[in-house]
């Protein structure tokens, strides 16, 4: 029987991390954990409670009231309410990038992520998986694509979902988030020294999955 490893995928916004992670998890029969969704839940809850996301103390006080559950079919519940679609709103994306700067928020979520990842056979995507959450992951991927390509992908995804979308505004939003995520004091987004970079700009989904599966095969 092959070994059940841990896989970390990090990279900037809309690089295709979660799409690839889901496809690889399905093919390996691994558990996929979307850590970005957890930061989105914290921001969503702050917005719901009319708490200013830039108020670190007020946001940190909310953590004790936050119960996040993730189901194998991709459903995300916050305090038993289905927030799967609601957390994808633009305002929540920007809010997530703000609350993810706070130490209390990060330690609260990182602890949960490590608990969920116990035992291996998992694939986590986010910003700090290879550098912080799963420093010992057997496979670390740093997935990138040009900003134009990432903005266009997110734009197409929105249109497909029937959400209003403006390409220039999306590009501006993800550039702003990347800048914020890469320059924050705690666990900034960066490539782990032992991560393998994949630039997906000119690759199809199938090509990216094949590349990741090849790297997995070398490790199990
Ligand atoms: N070669 C590719 N690799 C990864 N994603 C791609 C590729 N081509 C198109 N996409 C699309 O890019 C979009 C954004 O991907 P997503 O997984 O949400 O990114 P992230 O999790 O990094 O924010 C998805 O609609 C996905 O289908
Ligand atoms: N492990 C993680 C995952 C997300 N995040 C934060 O959460 C935000 C939303 O993450 P996401 O992965 O859902 O975003 P997209 O790349 O899907 O647009 C990011 O912009 C980061 O600020 C983080 O700090 N650490």
TrEMBL record:
SUPFAM superfamilies: P-loop containing nucleoside triphosphate hydrolases
Known catalytic reactions: dCMP + ATP = dCDP + ADP; CMP + ATP = CDP + ADP
Gene it is expressed from: cmk
Keywords: ATP-binding, Cytoplasm, Kinase, Nucleotide-binding, Transferase
Provenance organism: Massilimicrobiota timonensis
All residue ranges annotated as the Cytidylate kinase domain in the record: 7-217
Record-linked PANTHER family: CYTIDYLATE KINASE (PTHR21299:SF2), CYTIDYLATE KINASE/PANTOATE-BETA-ALANINE LIGASE (PTHR21299)
Designated name of the protein: Cytidylate kinase
Top-level lineage group: Bacteria
GO biological process: nucleobase-containing small molecule interconversion; pyrimidine nucleotide metabolic process
UniProt-recorded Gene Ontology molecular function terms: ATP binding; CMP kinase activity; dCMP kinase activity
UniProt-listed InterPro entries: Cytidylate_kin, Cytidylate_kinase_dom, P-loop_NTPase
Enzyme Commission code: 2.7.4.25
Chief place where the protein resides: cytoplasm
Gene3D superfamilies in the record: P-loop containing nucleotide triphosphate hydrolases (3.40.50.300)
Localization: Cytoplasm
Listed NCBIfam families: cmk
